[in-house]
Design brief:
Layout: E1 3-9, E2 18-24, E3 27-33, H1 46-49, H2 51-55, E4 64-67, E5 73-76, H3 78-96, E6 101-105, H4 113-125, E7 131-133, H5 141-149, E8 151-152, E9 164-168, H6 172-175, H7 185-195, E10 198-202, E11 215-217, H8 224-237, H9 243-249, E12 250-251, H10 253-260, H11 265-272, H12 276-288, E13 296-298, H13 300-303, H14 308-321, E14 348-349, E15 355-360, E16 367-369, H15 378-383, E17 392-396, H16 400-403, H17 407-416, E18 419-423, E19 436-438, E20 448-449, H18 451-455, E21 469-470, E22 472-473, H19 488-498, E23 504-511, E24 516-525, H20 534-541, H21 549-553, E25 559-560, E26 578-579, H22 583-594, H23 597-600, E27 608-612, H24 627-630, E28 638-640, H25 642-647, E29 655-659, E30 664-671, E31 679-682, H26 696-699, E32 725-731
Parallel strand pairs: 6-7, 6-17, 9-10, 9-13, 10-11, 12-26, 17-18, 18-19, 27-31, 28-30
Antiparallel strand pairs: 1-2, 2-3, 4-5, 4-19, 8-14, 15-16, 20-22, 21-25, 23-24, 27-32, 28-31, 29-30, 29-32
Helix pairs in contact: 3-19, 4-19, 5-14, 8-11, 8-12, 8-14, 10-22, 11-12
The chain binds ligand MGD (2 copies), iron/sulfur cluster and molybdenum atom (MO).
Protein name: Anaerobic dehydrogenase, typically selenocysteine-containing
GO molecular function: iron-sulfur cluster binding; metal ion binding; molybdopterin cofactor binding; oxidoreductase activity
InterPro entries: Asp_de-COase-like_dom_sf, MoPterin_dinucl-bd_dom, Mopterin_OxRdtase, Mopterin_OxRdtase_4Fe-4S_dom, Prok_Mopterin_Oxidored
């Protein structure tokens, strides 16, 4: 029997853990942590260890599928599918123009760094502006806030050295997403706490992360802007700011001070339903504890409850008034490895135009923005007839039917398309409506590198790899015998060839939709490059890497390279400043202050607020059906405090209906005393078609169905209220 065990990279989430993959007779049978990986030191999570089950999943598509006239699906060769799809797309472009073709990139673009870039090159080549990603139904406020505030060119403080840190509506011990570095976050947090770090967590639930905090503020959901403004107000009133940093690097302080002055401890305490003393303690602790203060990061919980842009902006303002950025002479926390070298400087990159420009949507006055096009409005763009109507959608590694808001509208839209193509490893909920489903290769069947995990540092502070670390691994296992699979990027190159398009592939090394560039992009052209391999494509993407790809390759278990990068002094002629006084966002804060929160909090028809949370064993909708991961529970319960369950006269395990002002879904109650009594929580991206509600115990239900897209939404990003949703809970 031929058995090999080689290093690999799990890319299910952005941590990109170094693992060991065992292949027996051409089949992936085991994935474990890699003790010889210098960054991860043997760490993995349950999802990574399930990669064999994920690859060998009996429901995995081994051939692309085409919908037959009777609605069933049959296999189609990948080349043949590309022929037919290219013809159909060309036809639509000829009849309706390029805007009729849209593309949506979901979370499974992340494992394959070339696929997003090639998809983007393709949509630019057909000259369609309709490139959408999951970002605008996630935390688009991060880029909006950075555009309004500016970037600090010295970069972030390292979590591993900080004495305090604030986390708002994020649970990085499970999500590996922000604040605590995702590379074994539990160990990082333990080390930090042992060292004396004081962690402050703001979360309506005693999450795994909140349970380890020095201060856990457990507020009503949706009041994070009030809490942040309150903390800023205390710090300003008690004169705990970093005055020198403010003087040298920050504009707009007086405007900020005035805008937060109404958020007194008493006001915030009543509004957010928290003790005023706790707020004061948190503010003092953050501003004055220790010698090396830390940063402030918010996650999905705080971003989805409305006012996400404002919450993110106030996080940056709080960071900046306390001067919590890396300074001249200090080590660069994320110096780049597979990304290009750059010079970090102790100075500001000024704010830039973040929204209200570029392509206009035909609905709700929405436009393109630094966070990308508003995905929550794509269903409307498909349904709304007239010039510019979207007729074709290509969906890569995403699952709109499970993850987009307003599931019924999404379904109507997808069903009305002339062409829906998904690139998916299984017949996902969305694929069940597609004309073609393109079956791609999976993680261990393609070469891999850690560039994607480095790159997310440009998305927002508190993310990325806080070390000059990189890993490259070749393909570890051949695709299953008899299968006909393609890589996503090859699909787009295949379409381009058939449509005689010239592809310009652009690898950005910056943020703000290309408006903030740390290093010049790599641009290459793909005319007639028919025999290109993934390795060759990676070579092109790494042409300007700080550490050459060949050198990274020579360390199969990954390596932390010897990079001596230090933040340099501010340029003598630099006059750029960060802005904490953005008029639009502080205007939103004034409106927020003027809201009648008392009546908003006392809606007796919808007495609970439904909040999001993530599942340890699943990545959004991926992996739910696998017994190894679901352990007999393939659904998303509605978690509720036991006292609240008893008050409703129900029991844990009861079948219930969750009703929002928009729609309702079935669910199963589960007692959870980590929640406030007025809050219920569930995981998103579960569930079936709206006609499959009776299968709730087999697949859960889709939170997105409860969420309207055109009632409560952010006017800049289009992000609807995906958290803090008013609901009622009744026996079914
Ligand atoms: N109500 C509510 N809605 C939310 C959220 C919330 O918290 N609450 N969260 C939002 C957030 S943060 C996000 S990021 C979005 C997620 O939105 P999406 O990205 O659209 O949803 P996913 O479930 O991540 O979609 C992943 C798809 O990729 C497929 N897949 C798995 N492996 C592979 C692979 O190797 N290759 C390919 N090509 N496909 C693969 C899966 O089968 C699945 O269909 O949802 C958002 N929606
Ligand atoms: N295991 C696993 N990891 C994942 C994912 C996954 O599905 N599973 N998804 C990935 C994706 S796409 C993303 S975007 C990231 C997201 O990563 P995170 O943002 O860390 O997401 P969650 O783990 O859901 O943590 C959100 C927290 O916000 C709290 N919360 C809810 N509403 C509010 C509110 O109004 N205010 C405050 N202050 N808190 C609130 C919830 O109780 C919860 O603890 O995770 C990524 N990593
Ligand atoms: S933490 Fe993320 S990258 Fe690491 S094993 Fe788990 S899913 Fe994979
Ligand atoms: Mo996300």
């Amino acid at each position: 029997m031929s058995t090999t065990t080689k290093p690999g990279i799990c890319r299910i989430c952005s941590a990109h853990c170094g693992v060991l993959a065992t292949v027996v007779e051409g089949k992936l049978v085991k994935v474990t942590g890699d003790p010889d990986n210098p960054l991860f030191k043997g760490y993995t999570c349950a999802k990574g260890r399930a990669l064999p089950e994920i690859h060998n999943n009996p429901h995995r598509l081994l051939h692309s599928q085409k919908r037959q006239p009777d609605g069933t699906y049959g296999p189609i060769g990948a080349e043949r599918a590309m022929d037919e799809i290219a013809t159909a797309l060309q036809n639509l472009i000829d009849r309706y123009g390029p805007r009729s073709v849209a593309l949506y990139l979901g979370t499974n673009g992340l494992p394959y760094p070339a696929s997003a870039l090639m998809a983007n090159a393709f949509i630019r080549a057909i000259e369609s502006p309709m490139f959408f990603t999951a970002n605008t139904i996630d935390q688009p406020g991060k880029q909006i806030a950075l555009a309004a505030h500016g970037h600090w060119l010295g970069g972030d403080i390292d979590f591993h050295e900080a004495d305090s840190w604030i986390l708002i509506g994020t649970n990085p011990l499970i999500s590996k997403s922000i604040g605590i570095p995702g590379q074994n976050p539990a160990q990082s947090l333990k080390n930090a706490i042992d060292r004396g770090m004081k962690l402050i967590v703001i979360d309506p639930r005693r999450s795994q992360t909140a349970a380890r905090a020095a201060v856990h503020i457990q507020p009503r959901p949706g009041e994070d802007a009030a809490i942040l403004a309150g903390i800023i107000n205390i710090i300003i009133t008690e004169k705990l700011c970093d005055w020198r940093f403010l003087e040298e690097n920050v504009d707009g302080f007086d405007e900020l001070a005035k805008a937060v002055s109404g958020f007194t401890p008493t006001y915030v305490a009543e509004r957010a339903d928290i003790p005023a003393d706790q707020l004061i303690d948190a503010a003092r602790l953050f501003a004055s504890y220790g010698t090396r203060g830390g940063m402030v990061n918010a996650g999905t919980g705080a971003n989805m409850a409305m006012h996400g842009n404002l919450v993110e902006y106030l996080c940056l303002c709080l960071t900046s008034i306390c001067g919590r950025w890396q300074r001249a002479g200090e080590r660069v926390t994320r110096p780049n490895t597979l990304l290009p070298a750059f010079t970090a400087k102790a100075q500001a990159h000024p704010p830039y135009e973040g929204w209200g420009y570029g392509e206009r949507l035909r609905v709700r006055g929405l436009t393109d923005a630094v966070c990308g096009m508003p995905t929550a409005a794509l269903a409307d763009e498909i349904l709304l007839e007239g010039d510019g109507q979207v007729k074709a959608l290509i969906c890569i590694g995403g699952n709109p039917m499970a993850a987009w808001p307003d599931q019924r509208k999404t379904m109507r839209a997808l069903e009305s398309l002339e062409l829906l193509v998904t690139l998916d490893t299984e017949m996902s909920l969305t694929s069940r409506l597609a004309h073609y489903v393109i079956a791609p290769m999976m993680q261990m069947e393609t070469p891999a590198m850690t560039m994607g995990s480095e790159l997310i540092k440009y998305y927002t502070s508190g993310t990325g790899i806080p070390a000059p670390y990189a890993q490259y691994v070749p393909r570890l296992v051949e695709p299953p015998r008899g299968s006909d699979l393609t890589e996503e990027w090859q699909f787009f190159l295949g379409l381009a060839k058939r449509m005689s398009l010239e592809l310009w592939f652009v690898n950005f090394f910056g943020g703000g939709g290309g408006k903030f560039m740390e290093s010049p992009p790599i641009v290459c052209n793909f005319n007639g490059d028919s025999a290109l391999t993934t390795e060759e494509l990676f070579e092109k993407m790494c042409a300007t890497s700080r550490i050459p790809l060949d050198e990274v390759r020579s360390h199969p278990h990954g390596n932390i390279f010897d990079v001596e990068a230090v933040v340099e002094q501010k340029d003598p002629d630099c006059t750029a400043k960060l802005d904490v006084g953005n008029a639009y966002l502080l205007g939103e804060l004034a409106e927020f202050l003027a809201e009648d929160f008392r009546s908003a909090h006392s809606d007796s028809a919808f007495p609970f607020r439904l909040i999001p949370r993530r599942h340890n064993n699943f990545m959004n909708s991926s992996g739910i059906a696998l017994p190894k991961l679901n352990r007999g529970k393939p659904y998303n319960p509605t978690y509720m405090h036991p006292d609240a369950i008893a008050e409703l006269g129900l029991e844990s395990g009861a079948l219930v209906t969750i009703t929002s002002p928009h729609d309702s879904i079935p669910s199963v109650l589960e007692a959870d005393d980590s929640l406030r009594r007025d809050v219920v929580a569930t995981h998103h991206a579960f569930g079936g078609m709206p006609t499959e509600d009776d299968e709730v115990k087999d697949r859960g239900s889709t939170v997105g169905r409860l969420i309207p897209t055109a009632t409560d939404y952010d006017p800049v990003t289009g992000l609807p209220r995906q958290g803090n949703i008013p609901v009622s809970v009744t026996a079914r």
